[in-house]
Amino acid sequence: MSTSTLAPAPPATGRTLRQNLARVTFVDVALWTLRLLVLVVVVGGTIGTLISTKYGAAQWFDFIMFGVTIGSIYAQIALGYTMVYGVLRLINFAHGDIMMTGAFSGYFVATSFDRSGFLGSHPVLAVLGTLAVSVVVSTGVAVLAERVAYRPFRHVRGLAPLICAIGVSFFLEQTFRGMFGASVKSYPDLHWASASFTVAGMNVPKIDLLVIGCAIISMTVLYLVIHHTKMGTAIRAVSEDTEAAALMGIDVNRVVVFTFMLGGVMAGIAGVFYAFVFKQIYFYMGFTPGIKAFGAAVLGGIGSVPGAMIGGFFLGIVESVGPTLFFDGIGIPAPYQLRDLIAFTLLIMVLIFRPNGLLGARLAKQRACRRRRIRR
């Protein structure tokens, strides 16, 4: 038997470290570099802005208040994305333009009320009438788009349904451009809502409270409809398993139409409030808030109704506070003009590093557990 001494094996930790380093690719390095770059900008800019004491508490409150206001609008639009995706597994990229149709229809009603003096003498009834017409038009457009464009592609796999959704978006934009022109139209002012009142030394605009309050009420009603009604139970059943729901006697077509109706209602309300906040509408106005709302839905977890709400508010606050907080401290001029950069960077980061969103992972686990129970 040989008495030669065998060479000692390398330590397991060293071997594991070398194996991990060998697996590192250029994509991994690029992603970590992106993370570090964003972290440096966020941390460095935040420290620089706070040290400068350039902004007071009242200004930060204004930023947060506007963020919650625009976030409530994003949340309403995001609900349309997440509900349609939950039922059909389809990203309805025309949803932002459905919001645009509601804003345009509300514009003609609000302008008529303003010219007749009804908007000034009966503001509550005028706003309710504007919302009603906007909701009817946007809901009708959403249902018509589902019946004409989406239903033929319901059982088609691949990119065809997505391309169809993009086509519907362009069709709506160019139709309204041809019918009403490409010029920007100004919404009438709500004189009573333009004022503000003081709370603890902070100015709170009435229009912000109106938008936030109505958005919270509409989202609460939608949540109750989905979780505490028979049709809401049918929506959740179809979202879990379309074929099994059909075998149990659920009318899938009716559920899909009702889902588009709910999305159209939320889009119509969001369109009017968006116009009241920004005062202007045009045929292309639905694209940017639609993409941001899609980012909010992904951030909260696409397919999750509470996630869409949380994602919308979070995106609105980050978009409002972020440019000043992150960029002003590192010397970037006019940082608020980069608020779209903040929103789309957040969307890219979520898609890369957490594609399931904040609540999407929990939703996926719950569905997997239910399917295991059914198989047993």
N- to C-terminal distance = 58 Å
The secondary-structure class comes to mainly alpha
Q: Please report the number of helical segments.
A: 16
Strands side by side in the biggest sheet: 1-4
Poorly predicted regions: none
Mean pLDDT: 84
Largest beta sheet, briefly?
A: 2 strands, antiparallel
User: Order of SSEs, N→C?
Assistant: HHHHHHHEHEEHHHHEHHHH
- Rg result: 25 Å
Beta strands, count = 4
How many separate domains? 2
Strand content: under 5%
General shape: globular
Helix content: over 70%
Q: Mind explaining what this structure looks like?
A:
- The protein is mainly alpha-helical.
- The protein folds into two domains: 75-285, no CATH class; 312-376, no CATH class.
- The protein has helices at residues 12-23, 26-52, 57-88, 95-116, 118-121, 123-150, 160-180, 191-194, 206-228, 230-240, 242-247, 252-278, 287-300, 305-327, 339-353, 357-375; strands at residues 185-186, 196-199, 202-205, 280-281.
- 38% of the residues are buried.
- The mean pLDDT is 84.
Condensed summary:
With 376 residues, the chain is mainly alpha-helical.
Which secondary structure elements does this structure contain, and how are they paired or packed?
Blueprint: H1 12-23, H2 26-52, H3 57-88, H4 95-116, H5 118-121, H6 123-150, H7 160-180, E1 185-186, H8 191-194, E2 196-199, E3 202-205, H9 206-228, H10 230-240, H11 242-247, H12 252-278, E4 280-281, H13 287-300, H14 305-327, H15 339-353, H16 357-375
Antiparallel strand pairs: 1-4, 2-3
Helix pairs in contact: 2-14, 3-9, 3-12, 3-13, 3-14, 4-6, 4-7, 4-12, 4-13, 6-12, 9-10, 9-12, 10-12, 13-14, 13-15, 13-16, 14-15
